Amino acid sequence: MILPEVLSQQFTGDTSVQLGLRLSADLFWFKGHFPTSPILPGVTQVNWVMIYADELLGLNQAFSGMEVVKFQRPLLPDEVVSLQIDWLKEKHRLVFRYSVGGSVASSGKITLCP
Q: In whole angstroms, what is the distance from residue 102 CA to residue 38 CA?
């Protein structure tokens, strides 16, 4: 399994979406990323933002760079997380935040090519 189970999705206009995701322990990304203490890799978190922005917000733009990316808490197998994605069209920027139980686990800004 490559993507997490989507439990919920809520749109705010056509530029924002909030997803509820279940991080099954069977996800490919947990295998080998610290075998005795698996965590979801940061690169996977950023990749999922890009995938969901394309699929749900219709953004088919190439990655250009990242700013202010913070990984404050690991995302663990079998957790339910919230992913907020906001598209700032005028800045060509995606702003994202993964949260667990109301606490921010990771966040950042992804710049896309115009």
A: 22
Cα separation, 81 vs 77, whole angstroms: 11
| pLDDT for the residue 36 | 83
CA distances in angstroms from 100 to 23, 55, 80, 103, 104, listed in the order given: 11, 23, 7, 5, 6
For residue 9, is pLDDT > 90?
yes
| Largest Cα span, the chain | 44
56, two tokens? 């749900």
Q: Please tell me the distance from the alpha carbon of residue 72 to that of residue 93, in angstroms, as a whole number.
A: 21
> How long a stretch of residues is the chain?
114
Confirm whether pTM is higher than 0.85. Answer: yes
Confidence of residue 38 (pLDDT cuts 50, 70, 90): very high
Alpha-carbon gap, residue 58 to 70, rounded angstroms: 25
What type of residue is 36?
T
Bridge partners for 12 per DSSP: 16
- In the block, tokens 């189970």 appear at 5
